[in-house]
DNA sequence: CTGGATGCAAACTGTTTGCATCAGA
DNA sequence: TCTGATGCAAACAGTTTGCATCCAG
């Protein structure tokens, strides 16, 4: 149920004294609709443009920042010069990215395998890990 | 022996019909001197400025790009809006980064542990991994 | 009604490019 | 000599900011 998720976010906004504006609603709705995609500010802006031409690019940026801060979205960067955002899968259930060096396609994989690695690092180095980002580069099935 | 490493790179440049210019020499020398540091173009530019004020920022960018392409340097991004470069430790001996969320300090660790992970991924997903970038976020010993 | 949110345009930052000049091979 | 490399300035892309206006609470 998508709007259930949305309502949860709206709740949270209110609780933290942020206003629930139509712009914020629209942007969240877009991400819920495109669950799993990694959208840039520009892309969000362009899509919304069609149905809501009043929304400004600055508002998109501000809203994406806000949502990232509230952990509604996760901020990503694939080193193409622009930040991307994706819906943060509720509870800490990360996934990571396989980036095809040829066609640029981005595949994903879960991070269960990484937990063991984290433990080993924590044991070796005096560093408390609380998050990680992993990117693998290579060639997807269509490209080799 | 540092200039041995430098000479190797100069060799390579010549072999690939790139010219060995004083600017390229200076930039490489800087990275050799600051081995292990992650320098941004701006930083390289500012440091060189002191001893070689003629060198232009555009040249720094072009040279960093070139070196990255030749695998002399490795291009990194710590999501602070600017690219950084570090000396690429000769043969494929990667290390990865532990980024302190509090003070921004960047620690490093080797990647021997990751190999097993790669194999598991390759087995599961149809994707030929040829490189990876891993970043862990957390708190370093001074910050928790 | 009131302060936070918005839209717009201008400012900013990091990076790239066009072009005349320079210099390594 | 002659093409690739440089320096400079202008152009660019993505993002941020100032400010008058608007509207959710």
From TrEMBL, chains A, B:
Binds 1 zinc ion per subunit. Binds 1 Mn(2+) or Fe(2+) ion per subunit. This is Transcriptional repressor. GO terms for molecular function: DNA-binding transcription factor activity; transcription cis-regulatory region binding; zinc ion binding. Zn(2+) binds at residues 100, 103, 140, 143. Keywords: DNA-binding, Iron, Metal-binding, Repressor, Transcription, Transcription regulation, Zinc. It comes from Metallumcola ferriviriculae. Its cofactor is Zn(2+); Mn(2+); Fe(2+). It holds the Pfam family FUR. SUPFAM superfamilies: Winged helix' DNA-binding domain. GO terms for biological process: negative regulation of DNA-templated transcription; regulation of secondary metabolite biosynthetic process. Fe cation binds at residues 94, 115, 132. It comes from the Bacteria. Belongs to the Fur family. The keyword Calcium does not apply.
């Amino acid at each position: 149920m998508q709007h259930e998720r949305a309502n949860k976010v709206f709740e949270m906004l209110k609780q933290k004294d942020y206003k629930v504006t139509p712009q914020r609603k629209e942007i969240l709705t877009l991400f819920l609709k495109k669950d799993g995609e990694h959208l840039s500010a520009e892309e969000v802006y362009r899509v919304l443009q069609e149905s809501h031409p009043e929304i400004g690019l600055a508002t998109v940026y501000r809203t994406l920042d806000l949502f990232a801060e509230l952990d509604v979205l996760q901020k990503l960067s694939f080193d193409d010069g622009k930040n991307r955002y994706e819906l943060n899968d509720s509870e800490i259930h990360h996934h990571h990215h396989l980036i095809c060096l040829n066609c640029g396609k981005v595949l994903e994989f879960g991070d269960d395998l990484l937990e063991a690695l984290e433990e080993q690092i924590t044991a070796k180095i005096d560093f408390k890990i609380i998050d990680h980002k992993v990117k693998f580069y290579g060639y997807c099935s269509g490209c080799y």
